UniProtKB/TrEMBL annotation:
The gene is LOC105161016. This is Uncharacterized protein LOC105161016. One of its GO terms (molecular function) is glycosyltransferase activity. It comes from Sesamum indicum. InterPro entries: BC10-like, Glyco_trans_14. It is a single-pass type II membrane protein.
Protein backbone atom coordinates (compact mmCIF):
# COMPACT_ATOMS: atom_id res chain seq x y z
CA UNK A 1 0.00 0.00 0.00
CA UNK A 2 1.19 3.58 -0.73
CA UNK A 3 1.69 5.84 2.25
CA UNK A 4 -0.76 8.73 2.42
CA UNK A 5 1.92 11.51 2.31
CA UNK A 6 3.35 9.95 -0.84
CA UNK A 7 -0.08 9.82 -2.51
CA UNK A 8 -0.80 13.44 -1.64
CA UNK A 9 2.58 14.61 -2.92
CA UNK A 10 2.19 12.64 -6.12
CA UNK A 11 -1.32 14.02 -6.68
CA UNK A 12 -0.07 17.58 -6.19
CA UNK A 13 2.75 16.99 -8.66
CA UNK A 14 0.29 15.79 -11.29
CA UNK A 15 -2.03 18.72 -10.66
CA UNK A 16 0.49 21.44 -11.55
CA UNK A 17 0.23 21.00 -15.35
CA UNK A 18 -3.57 21.01 -15.05
CA UNK A 19 -3.45 24.26 -13.09
CA UNK A 20 -1.41 25.93 -15.82
CA UNK A 21 -3.93 24.68 -18.38
CA UNK A 22 -7.20 25.59 -16.68
CA UNK A 23 -6.49 28.51 -14.33
CA UNK A 24 -6.22 31.09 -17.18
CA UNK A 25 -9.67 29.96 -18.33
CA UNK A 26 -11.17 30.21 -14.84
CA UNK A 27 -9.64 33.39 -13.45
CA UNK A 28 -10.64 36.74 -14.95
CA UNK A 29 -8.10 38.08 -17.47
CA UNK A 30 -5.72 40.86 -16.56
CA UNK A 31 -7.20 44.26 -17.34
CA UNK A 32 -4.87 46.50 -19.32
CA UNK A 33 -5.96 50.11 -18.92
CA UNK A 34 -4.60 53.27 -20.52
CA UNK A 35 -2.79 55.33 -17.89
CA UNK A 36 -3.95 58.84 -17.00
CA UNK A 37 -0.72 60.48 -18.27
CA UNK A 38 -1.09 58.69 -21.62
CA UNK A 39 -4.74 59.70 -21.81
CA UNK A 40 -3.91 63.35 -21.11
CA UNK A 41 -1.09 63.34 -23.68
CA UNK A 42 -3.46 61.98 -26.30
CA UNK A 43 -6.19 64.50 -25.48
CA UNK A 44 -3.70 67.35 -25.89
CA UNK A 45 -2.58 65.92 -29.24
CA UNK A 46 -6.15 65.51 -30.47
CA UNK A 47 -7.06 69.05 -29.44
CA UNK A 48 -4.09 70.46 -31.35
CA UNK A 49 -5.05 68.43 -34.42
CA UNK A 50 -8.67 69.59 -34.23
CA UNK A 51 -7.63 73.24 -33.87
CA UNK A 52 -5.17 72.94 -36.76
CA UNK A 53 -7.98 71.77 -39.02
CA UNK A 54 -10.16 74.80 -38.34
CA UNK A 55 -10.35 77.30 -41.16
CA UNK A 56 -9.48 74.79 -43.89
CA UNK A 57 -6.20 73.35 -42.70
CA UNK A 58 -4.17 75.85 -40.68
CA UNK A 59 -0.64 74.56 -41.30
CA UNK A 60 1.03 75.30 -44.61
CA UNK A 61 1.99 72.31 -46.71
CA UNK A 62 5.68 71.59 -47.07
CA UNK A 63 5.13 71.98 -50.84
CA UNK A 64 3.53 75.40 -50.45
CA UNK A 65 0.55 76.39 -52.57
CA UNK A 66 2.03 75.60 -55.97
CA UNK A 67 0.95 71.96 -55.84
CA UNK A 68 -2.60 71.72 -54.46
CA UNK A 69 -3.14 68.07 -55.39
CA UNK A 70 -4.50 66.03 -52.47
CA UNK A 71 -2.28 63.40 -50.83
CA UNK A 72 -2.68 59.96 -49.27
CA UNK A 73 -1.27 59.55 -45.76
CA UNK A 74 -0.06 56.01 -45.13
CA UNK A 75 -0.27 55.08 -41.45
CA UNK A 76 1.84 52.09 -40.45
CA UNK A 77 0.85 50.48 -37.13
CA UNK A 78 3.51 48.00 -36.02
CA UNK A 79 5.24 46.23 -33.14
CA UNK A 80 7.97 44.61 -35.26
CA UNK A 81 10.33 45.62 -38.07
CA UNK A 82 8.76 46.81 -41.31
CA UNK A 83 9.80 43.67 -43.17
CA UNK A 84 8.23 44.76 -46.46
CA UNK A 85 9.77 48.24 -46.54
CA UNK A 86 11.70 47.47 -49.79
CA UNK A 87 8.43 46.53 -51.52
CA UNK A 88 6.71 49.67 -50.28
CA UNK A 89 9.72 51.70 -51.52
CA UNK A 90 8.98 50.49 -55.04
CA UNK A 91 5.29 51.26 -54.54
CA UNK A 92 6.03 54.90 -53.57
CA UNK A 93 8.73 55.43 -56.22
CA UNK A 94 8.36 58.59 -58.34
CA UNK A 95 5.25 59.78 -56.47
CA UNK A 96 6.87 61.92 -53.76
CA UNK A 97 4.42 64.82 -54.09
CA UNK A 98 1.32 62.67 -53.56
CA UNK A 99 1.85 60.82 -50.28
CA UNK A 100 3.15 61.02 -46.72
CA UNK A 101 4.22 58.25 -44.33
CA UNK A 102 3.69 57.99 -40.56
CA UNK A 103 4.76 55.07 -38.38
CA UNK A 104 3.54 54.16 -34.88
CA UNK A 105 5.97 51.56 -33.50
CA UNK A 106 5.46 50.03 -30.04
CA UNK A 107 8.34 51.55 -27.99
CA UNK A 108 8.67 48.35 -25.95
CA UNK A 109 9.63 46.40 -29.10
CA UNK A 110 13.13 46.34 -30.55
CA UNK A 111 12.63 47.74 -34.05
CA UNK A 112 15.28 48.58 -36.58
CA UNK A 113 14.22 51.82 -38.31
CA UNK A 114 14.12 51.43 -42.09
CA UNK A 115 15.76 54.03 -44.29
CA UNK A 116 14.69 55.53 -47.59
CA UNK A 117 11.21 57.06 -47.66
CA UNK A 118 10.56 55.68 -44.15
CA UNK A 119 13.47 57.56 -42.60
CA UNK A 120 12.34 60.00 -39.90
CA UNK A 121 8.67 59.07 -40.24
CA UNK A 122 8.22 57.58 -36.74
CA UNK A 123 5.74 59.45 -34.54
CA UNK A 124 5.65 59.68 -30.73
CA UNK A 125 4.27 56.27 -29.80
CA UNK A 126 3.05 54.36 -26.76
CA UNK A 127 2.76 50.67 -25.91
CA UNK A 128 0.11 48.63 -27.72
CA UNK A 129 -1.42 45.34 -26.72
CA UNK A 130 -3.83 43.03 -28.45
CA UNK A 131 -7.46 42.95 -27.26
CA UNK A 132 -7.13 46.37 -25.61
CA UNK A 133 -8.08 49.93 -26.49
CA UNK A 134 -4.39 50.79 -26.91
CA UNK A 135 -4.74 49.88 -30.60
CA UNK A 136 -7.51 52.44 -30.95
CA UNK A 137 -5.30 55.07 -29.31
CA UNK A 138 -2.39 54.25 -31.61
CA UNK A 139 -4.54 54.65 -34.73
CA UNK A 140 -5.93 57.95 -33.41
CA UNK A 141 -2.38 59.23 -32.76
CA UNK A 142 -1.44 58.42 -36.34
CA UNK A 143 -4.52 60.21 -37.66
CA UNK A 144 -3.96 63.28 -35.48
CA UNK A 145 -0.28 63.53 -36.43
CA UNK A 146 -1.04 63.21 -40.13
CA UNK A 147 -3.85 65.78 -39.95
CA UNK A 148 -1.53 68.34 -38.34
CA UNK A 149 1.50 67.56 -40.48
CA UNK A 150 0.06 68.37 -43.90
CA UNK A 151 -3.29 69.97 -44.79
CA UNK A 152 -3.11 68.27 -48.19
CA UNK A 153 -3.44 64.83 -46.56
CA UNK A 154 -6.92 63.91 -47.81
CA UNK A 155 -7.03 60.14 -47.39
CA UNK A 156 -5.58 58.21 -44.44
CA UNK A 157 -4.73 54.55 -45.07
CA UNK A 158 -4.06 52.44 -41.96
CA UNK A 159 -1.92 49.36 -42.67
CA UNK A 160 0.22 46.94 -40.66
CA UNK A 161 3.75 45.59 -41.04
CA UNK A 162 2.21 42.44 -42.53
CA UNK A 163 0.38 44.31 -45.32
CA UNK A 164 1.53 44.52 -48.92
CA UNK A 165 0.23 46.68 -51.81
CA UNK A 166 -1.68 44.87 -54.56
CA UNK A 167 -1.58 47.63 -57.19
CA UNK A 168 0.67 50.47 -58.28
CA UNK A 169 0.47 53.77 -56.41
CA UNK A 170 -0.87 55.55 -59.50
CA UNK A 171 -3.69 53.02 -59.83
CA UNK A 172 -4.65 53.44 -56.18
CA UNK A 173 -4.47 57.23 -56.30
CA UNK A 174 -6.65 57.44 -59.39
CA UNK A 175 -9.16 55.01 -57.90
CA UNK A 176 -9.52 56.87 -54.61
CA UNK A 177 -9.89 60.34 -56.08
CA UNK A 178 -11.80 59.58 -59.25
CA UNK A 179 -15.40 60.08 -58.04
CA UNK A 180 -16.54 62.36 -55.20
CA UNK A 181 -19.87 62.05 -53.39
CA UNK A 182 -22.51 63.93 -55.34
CA UNK A 183 -23.55 67.19 -53.74
CA UNK A 184 -20.73 67.28 -51.18
CA UNK A 185 -17.60 69.38 -51.01
CA UNK A 186 -16.18 72.06 -53.28
CA UNK A 187 -14.76 71.89 -56.78
CA UNK A 188 -11.22 72.33 -55.40
CA UNK A 189 -11.34 69.61 -52.75
CA UNK A 190 -14.43 67.44 -53.24
CA UNK A 191 -15.58 65.06 -50.52
CA UNK A 192 -15.10 61.33 -51.07
CA UNK A 193 -16.24 58.24 -49.19
CA UNK A 194 -14.26 56.40 -46.54
CA UNK A 195 -13.42 52.76 -47.14
CA UNK A 196 -14.17 51.07 -43.82
CA UNK A 197 -15.90 47.77 -43.16
CA UNK A 198 -19.15 48.24 -41.21
CA UNK A 199 -21.07 45.05 -40.33
CA UNK A 200 -24.28 44.73 -38.34
CA UNK A 201 -25.39 41.12 -38.80
CA UNK A 202 -22.41 39.03 -37.71
CA UNK A 203 -23.20 36.03 -35.42
CA UNK A 204 -20.62 37.15 -32.80
CA UNK A 205 -22.07 40.65 -32.51
CA UNK A 206 -23.85 40.08 -29.17
CA UNK A 207 -20.79 38.53 -27.48
CA UNK A 208 -18.58 41.38 -28.64
CA UNK A 209 -21.09 43.98 -27.52
CA UNK A 210 -21.13 42.52 -23.99
CA UNK A 211 -17.38 41.88 -23.75
CA UNK A 212 -17.08 44.65 -21.13
CA UNK A 213 -20.15 43.53 -19.21
CA UNK A 214 -23.90 43.52 -19.76
CA UNK A 215 -25.38 46.93 -20.59
CA UNK A 216 -22.02 48.66 -19.98
CA UNK A 217 -22.14 50.32 -23.42
CA UNK A 218 -25.43 52.05 -22.65
CA UNK A 219 -26.69 54.69 -23.16
CA UNK A 220 -24.08 55.93 -25.66
CA UNK A 221 -24.01 52.71 -27.70
CA UNK A 222 -27.26 50.72 -27.80
CA UNK A 223 -26.91 47.24 -29.25
CA UNK A 224 -28.73 48.11 -32.48
CA UNK A 225 -26.09 50.80 -33.20
CA UNK A 226 -23.07 48.61 -32.40
CA UNK A 227 -20.97 47.57 -35.41
CA UNK A 228 -17.87 45.53 -36.17
CA UNK A 229 -15.41 45.49 -39.05
CA UNK A 230 -11.79 45.29 -40.12
CA UNK A 231 -9.28 47.33 -38.09
CA UNK A 232 -7.62 48.52 -41.32
CA UNK A 233 -9.30 51.33 -43.20
CA UNK A 234 -8.89 54.25 -45.62
CA UNK A 235 -10.57 57.33 -44.14
CA UNK A 236 -11.25 60.73 -45.64
CA UNK A 237 -9.94 63.80 -43.83
CA UNK A 238 -13.50 64.62 -42.76
CA UNK A 239 -13.85 61.26 -41.03
CA UNK A 240 -10.33 61.37 -39.58
CA UNK A 241 -11.42 64.56 -37.81
CA UNK A 242 -14.58 62.84 -36.55
CA UNK A 243 -12.36 60.17 -34.96
CA UNK A 244 -9.93 62.70 -33.48
CA UNK A 245 -12.66 64.87 -31.97
CA UNK A 246 -14.68 62.04 -30.43
CA UNK A 247 -14.88 61.85 -26.64
CA UNK A 248 -18.35 60.40 -26.10
CA UNK A 249 -17.91 56.90 -27.57
CA UNK A 250 -14.27 56.71 -26.50
CA UNK A 251 -15.39 56.73 -22.84
CA UNK A 252 -17.10 53.40 -23.47
CA UNK A 253 -14.67 51.69 -25.83
CA UNK A 254 -11.64 52.37 -23.63
CA UNK A 255 -13.15 50.31 -20.79
CA UNK A 256 -11.37 46.98 -20.19
CA UNK A 257 -12.97 43.75 -21.35
CA UNK A 258 -13.96 40.86 -19.09
CA UNK A 259 -14.45 38.44 -21.96
CA UNK A 260 -11.10 38.58 -23.72
CA UNK A 261 -12.19 36.02 -26.32
CA UNK A 262 -14.71 38.51 -27.74
CA UNK A 263 -12.70 41.68 -27.22
CA UNK A 264 -11.37 43.39 -30.34
CA UNK A 265 -11.88 47.11 -29.53
CA UNK A 266 -10.21 48.42 -32.69
CA UNK A 267 -12.62 46.34 -34.80
CA UNK A 268 -15.62 47.88 -33.00
CA UNK A 269 -14.84 51.52 -32.25
CA UNK A 270 -14.17 52.92 -35.73
CA UNK A 271 -17.09 51.15 -37.53
CA UNK A 272 -19.53 52.05 -34.73
CA UNK A 273 -18.45 55.70 -34.53
CA UNK A 274 -18.58 56.35 -38.27
CA UNK A 275 -21.80 54.38 -38.69
CA UNK A 276 -23.39 56.66 -36.11
CA UNK A 277 -21.91 59.90 -37.49
CA UNK A 278 -22.01 59.46 -41.27
CA UNK A 279 -23.10 56.06 -42.61
CA UNK A 280 -23.76 57.43 -46.11
CA UNK A 281 -20.23 58.79 -46.26
CA UNK A 282 -18.75 55.29 -45.85
CA UNK A 283 -18.61 52.44 -48.34
CA UNK A 284 -19.10 49.86 -45.52
CA UNK A 285 -16.30 47.70 -46.95
CA UNK A 286 -12.53 47.67 -46.60
CA UNK A 287 -9.80 47.84 -49.25
CA UNK A 288 -7.60 45.36 -47.35
CA UNK A 289 -7.97 41.68 -48.26
CA UNK A 290 -7.67 39.17 -45.41
CA UNK A 291 -7.95 35.39 -45.64
CA UNK A 292 -9.73 34.02 -42.56
CA UNK A 293 -9.74 30.45 -43.81
CA UNK A 294 -7.88 28.34 -41.28
CA UNK A 295 -7.43 31.23 -38.84
CA UNK A 296 -5.66 30.48 -35.57
CA UNK A 297 -6.30 32.24 -32.24
CA UNK A 298 -7.98 35.16 -33.95
CA UNK A 299 -5.17 35.59 -36.49
CA UNK A 300 -5.86 35.24 -40.24
CA UNK A 301 -4.06 32.91 -42.60
CA UNK A 302 -0.39 33.86 -42.99
CA UNK A 303 0.94 33.45 -46.51
CA UNK A 304 4.26 31.66 -46.91
CA UNK A 305 6.85 31.95 -49.74
CA UNK A 306 5.62 28.79 -51.47
CA UNK A 307 2.19 30.41 -51.92
CA UNK A 308 3.48 33.57 -53.61
CA UNK A 309 2.65 33.64 -57.31
CA UNK A 310 1.17 35.96 -59.96
CA UNK A 311 -2.07 34.02 -59.66
CA UNK A 312 -2.26 34.73 -55.92
CA UNK A 313 -1.90 38.48 -56.52
CA UNK A 314 -4.68 38.39 -59.09
CA UNK A 315 -6.94 36.44 -56.71
CA UNK A 316 -6.26 38.78 -53.81
CA UNK A 317 -7.28 41.80 -55.88
CA UNK A 318 -10.77 40.48 -56.59
CA UNK A 319 -13.53 41.86 -54.35
CA UNK A 320 -17.32 41.81 -54.22
CA UNK A 321 -17.52 45.59 -54.57
CA UNK A 322 -16.92 47.88 -57.51
CA UNK A 323 -13.41 48.55 -56.16
CA UNK A 324 -10.46 46.19 -56.30
CA UNK A 325 -8.63 45.37 -53.05
CA UNK A 326 -5.60 47.66 -52.70
CA UNK A 327 -3.78 45.85 -49.86
CA UNK A 328 -3.54 42.31 -48.52
CA UNK A 329 -2.38 40.66 -45.30
CA UNK A 330 -1.00 38.62 -43.64
CA UNK A 331 2.43 37.68 -45.10
CA UNK A 332 5.41 36.11 -43.37
CA UNK A 333 8.66 38.17 -43.53
CA UNK A 334 10.38 35.61 -45.79
CA UNK A 335 7.81 36.38 -48.50
CA UNK A 336 9.70 39.58 -49.28
CA UNK A 337 12.08 38.19 -51.89
CA UNK A 338 9.50 36.35 -54.03
CA UNK A 339 7.29 39.45 -53.87
CA UNK A 340 10.16 41.71 -54.98
CA UNK A 341 10.93 39.32 -57.84
CA UNK A 342 7.53 39.89 -59.41
CA UNK A 343 6.86 43.44 -58.16
CA UNK A 344 7.41 45.35 -61.42
CA UNK A 345 5.96 42.78 -63.80
CA UNK A 346 2.96 41.64 -61.72
CA UNK A 347 2.07 43.63 -58.59
CA UNK A 348 2.61 47.12 -60.01
CA UNK A 349 1.39 46.30 -63.51
CA UNK A 350 -2.34 47.10 -63.34
Amino acid sequence: MFHTPFVVSFALLLSFPLLFLFVPRILPPKHVEISLPDELDDLALFRRAALTSLGGGGAVSRLGVTNPRPKIAFLFLTNTNLHFAPLWELFFKNNEALYNIYIHADPSSKITPPGGVFSGRFIAAKKTERATATLISAARRLLATAVMDDPLNSYFALVSQHCIPLHSFKYMYKTLFVKPISGRGSSSFPIHRSFIEILSDEPQLWDRYNARGKNVMLPEVPFDRFRIGSQFFVLTRQHALVVIRDRRLWRKFKLPCFNMYSCYPEEHYFPTLLSMEDPDGCTHYTLTRVNWTGSVDGHPHTYQPAEISPRLIQELRVSNSSYSFMFARKFSPDCLQPLLTMAEKVIFRD
